[in-house]
Amino acid sequence: MSESYDVIVIGAGPAGYVAAIRCAQLNMKVAVVESWIGKNGKPALGGTCLNVGCIPSKALLDSSERYHHITHEADTHGIDARGVRLDIARMLARKDAVVEQLTSGIAGLFKANKIEWLQGRGKLLVGQQVEVTHDENTSVYAASHVILASGSLPIDIPVAPVDGERIVDSSGALDFAKVPDKLVVIGGGVIGLELGSVWRRLGAEVTVLEAMDRFLPMADQQVSRDALKQFKSQGLDIRLSAKVTGSQVTESGVEVSYDDANGAQALDVDKVLVAVGRRPNTSDIADPDTGLNVDERGFIEVDQQCRTNLPGVYAIGDCVRGPMLAHKGSEEGVAVAELIAGQQPLVDHNLIPSVVYTEPEIAWVGKTEQQLKEAGTEFVSGQFPFAATGRALAVDATAGFVKVIADSTTDRVLGVHVIGRNASELIAEAVVVMAFEGTAEDIARTVHAHPTLSEAMHEAALDVDFRAIHKAGRKRR
Ligand code: FAD
Ligand code: NAD
Questions:
Q1: CB hemisphere CA count around 332 (13 angstroms)
Q2: Domains along the sequence of the chain with CATH
Q3: Are 92 and 59 in contact (CB under 8 A)?
Q4: How far apart are CA 404 and CA 414, in angstroms?
Q5: Active site positions, annotated
Q6: Do the strands 361-366 and 354-356 form a parallel or antiparallel pair, or are they unpaired?
Q7: Cis previous bond, 451, omega within 30
Q8: What is the pLDDT along the chain (477 residues), one digit of tens a residue?
Q9: Is the pTM of the predicted complex or chain greater than 0.70?
Q10: 80: exposed, middle or buried (Cβ count in 10 Å: 0-12, 13-18, 19+)
């Protein structure tokens, strides 16, 4: 038996690495097992999020948005931007540099916090022991507590098997060496919309094939209707109720066949991105003798405090129930560390914000009107369009609106939905108000700087009580 630790974490994504740092802050002796090999061929921390997820996708969303603004909108600002040229290799290199800076930053934080990085694949053994395999060498470590944070992997579909060349998953779509002329995205979810937007802005013809008959069903219905309209006007060809039936890789591209309401359809494209969801990465996380409970979809079963059925063993992040979001995993990581230290932490799973980083951005927290209607909760909603704010006009960001939903009786905020520029940042105010069980009146009575996009949040909260200043026509009955 090798060394023993207070805590061993398996997986150094945003769930595992944050748990490890918080444990170290609480004076525990911590090791993290991580097997990721980065694009440069070197071991890397940060998991999906830093290496092939949140960060590289946002880097490309930013670069492609700048390109789109310069090529399509500079003119209206009196800027002559003729002769603009795309250097995709440099764009990808910048994205890789951002990733490298952040992942090596985590390695620095590990050193500073005296967290040991055990490189290799970890597996939970009976009695809080962890086996680590690296280059065919195996060591076994003991710990008082083990945190499983093995994350998730893309879901494959047999009708479009990923070959990494013509048919790719999200990691492949972060690295196209040239802009495809035609791209099909299978799955109109968050990845499909974000990466579909990147390549559309850079000039690809993008068709999104979504199996469901509704677009962004988890968002507020008014928001998803508005989003669909805006994405279509940007040239994203979004086809609903489209069931992919097959794909054939040819010398020049891929033939994709699908069925929709009009019958059998076919498309000839250069590349296909499969983005139909992710599944927990748990197939080899524990020796069967441990008796770790895993559900039929592969999620490790945990209680509200992320405790598994095994004493001293916890699981957090994408490998357990709940939304597959980096900030959700990180908060669970902090909570488990504090639980181990004898504190009484709580993650409120009702207050995890969701964001889609398209243009316009979409963000929400809490309940939608549809969910409240289904639950029979009486509510009032106030709404305000960005187009009626001075800042939105000044910065060319008039699309979208803010909706604040409050309880009819108590005025407590039950949900906030934003579609528009910087929705990802604006939603933070709503999360704080809701975390403090605040009311629409609390937002309405809070001074918001002028001119800012946050004034739309202020006005939407005022509108809950029919007193938005820059909006005509809505009167108390
Ligand atoms: P992961 O980040 O998947 O990390 C798990 C780690 O565990 C990996 O490093 C893996 O190598 C390691 N591991 C697994 N098994 C073992 C083992 N047996 N031994 C050793 N190591 C092991 N979320 C957001 O909140 N915002 C976004 O903008 C966003 N954008 C995304 C964009 C894309 C393209 C993708 C694919 C995902 C995005 N996500 C986003 C989702 C986000 O990346 C995940 O929710 C998040 O990474 C989950 O964190 P995690 O720590 O649970 O798992
Ligand atoms: P998703 O669940 O968001 O969307 C998948 C979509 O594919 C759904 O709309 C689904 O109906 C559709 N689909 C499923 N099977 C299909 C099929 N055979 N043909 C056509 N459509 C099909 O999943 P995703 O976009 O792959 O993202 C995976 C996870 O990563 C999500 O849980 C998301 O939370 C996370 N993520 C988050 C962000 C963010 O927070 N901005 C960004 C990217 C990814």
A1: 33
A2: 4-154+279-350 (3.50.50.60), 167-276 (3.50.50.60), 360-464 (3.30.390.30)
A3: no
A4: 8
A5: 450
A6: antiparallel
A7: yes
A8: 578 999 999 999 999 999 999 999 999 999 999 999 999 999 999 999 999 999 999 999 999 999 999 999 999 999 999 999 999 999 999 999 999 999 999 999 999 999 999 999 999 999 999 999 999 999 999 999 999 999 999 999 999 999 999 999 999 999 999 999 999 999 999 999 999 999 999 999 999 999 999 999 999 999 999 999 999 999 999 999 999 999 999 999 999 999 999 999 999 999 999 999 999 999 999 999 999 999 999 999 999 999 999 999 999 999 999 999 999 999 999 999 999 999 999 999 999 999 999 999 999 999 999 999 999 999 999 999 999 999 999 999 999 999 999 999 999 999 999 999 999 999 999 999 999 999 999 999 999 999 999 999 999 999 999 999 999 877 776
A9: yes
A10: exposed
Question: What residue ranges line ligand 1, CB within 6 angstroms?
Answer: 10-16, 33-36, 47-49, 53-54, 57, 121-122, 149-152, 170, 191, 281, 285, 317-318, 324-327, 329, 357
Q: Which of 42, 49, 168 to mutate to test the pocket of ligand 1 (most atoms within 8 A of CB)?
A: 49
254: tokens are: 């891929």
Q: Which of 74, 100, 63 is nearest to 179 (CA)?
A: 63
Atom 52 of ligand 1: nearest residue by CA position: 317
Assess contact for 183 and 272: CB atoms under 8 A.
yes
Alpha-carbon torsion (368, 242, 174, 181), positive or negative: negative
Q: Is 215:189 a contact under the CB 8 Å cutoff?
A: no
